[in-house]
């Protein structure tokens, strides 16, 4: 659940403290798991965690551990309803189950078994006439939603076909370091190495030392949001409601989120994207004949693993959909498709190539995205309500919001390469 040792300088922390942190982390995780499974209540979980943390209360250097645990605890309390226990494991409920649970009391079943939602009444009975849903989206599971019934529209034609559920666009979340955050700003430390490095020493010889400092950086969360107006009748059918939330909110916000994480300007409410933190291609010793886009990917991968002495292993390549399609259509001299990046038959094992519209055409992003940190301040929140003359027009305003932060620490920038395909192909082609 949580990496309690992340951010701790393990090499300069005594073994007893490391073992104590591991033991404490196990105790905290067990209590959190019991809370999610319903075995203990919130008060019992908080009491048990406080007891477990006593060992580090006076240790200022372990303050980040306490803050991390506090953030996760608050998130669990806020989002507990999104989880359930199956086969003694805590799993995320489906989007349909989360929505139905949070609208309980406003859903009835007709004679045909169709589930009918009274969204207007749900709004009426909520503070400020706004009904809010807190959702945890599992992008790996997107089941097909079928409508059992569509509410009648007087004098109009009803579309019984639900919106197509497009592929989730938050590709990078599947490969990055994602965790909750409890505040709207986050301070993290960057390790800045100085002189000196590891070396072999004779018995009794002087051990080499390295000068290093820690620099603190603070980032602020940004909010991505979308407002959609829907007819009240459209939201009456529960499967239709789920489909509208998927198509109109989740996927559209996902597109904007990914674009912001990668290319955000840091102005006008946007977060600062990580693009400027990634170095370009510079491996001058990699040369081949007749280089193409496939070779450019291998060259960028090789730069990361060679410069880092194999400390990083890229797990993701991001390309524009047009470039990805053109690369997939590359043929050999006999007209046969090359396609070396098929799932299960990758040119480089463990390296996936994904298409994203957040990447400009012609660009190539390669990296170990485990070192891209995404911190969610708010999970996806959906609010239904009325504004202006919505009520008289039988309209409902649906607002989706997320607040998040993203960053790459300076010492991990070499885990990435961002350049154009043309630049890399030119650089690696033998003269």
Fold blueprint:
Blueprint: H1 15-37, H2 42-52, H3 63-79, E1 83-86, E2 89-92, H4 95-102, E3 107-109, E4 115-117, H5 119-124, E5 131-135, E6 177-180, E7 185-193, E8 212-220, E9 222-231, H6 238-263, H7 293-307, E10 316-319, H8 321-328, E11 341-342, E12 345-346, E13 352-355, E14 363-367, E15 373-385, E16 395-407, E17 416-420, H9 421-428
Parallel strand pairs: 6-15, 10-13
Antiparallel strand pairs: 1-2, 3-4, 5-15, 7-8, 9-16, 10-14, 11-12, 14-17, 15-16
Helix pairs in contact: 1-2, 7-9
Average pLDDT metric: 80
Based on secondary structure, the structural category is alpha+beta
- Uncertain segments: 140-168
β-sheet strand percentage: 15-25%
Quantity of strands, as a count: 17
The CATH class of the largest domain turns out to be: Alpha Beta
Individual helix count: 9
The main sheet comes to: 5 strands, mixed
CATH architecture level-2 label of the largest domain: 2-Layer Sandwich
Give the CATH topology of the largest domain: Major capsid protein gp5 fold
Report the radius of gyration as a whole number of Å: 26 Å
Count the domains: 2
Rough outline? globular
CATH superfamily of the largest domain: Major capsid protein gp5
* H/E element sequence: HHHEEHEEHEEEEEHHEHEEEEEEEH
Distance between the termini: 51 Å
Question: What share of the residues lie within helices?
Answer: 25-40%
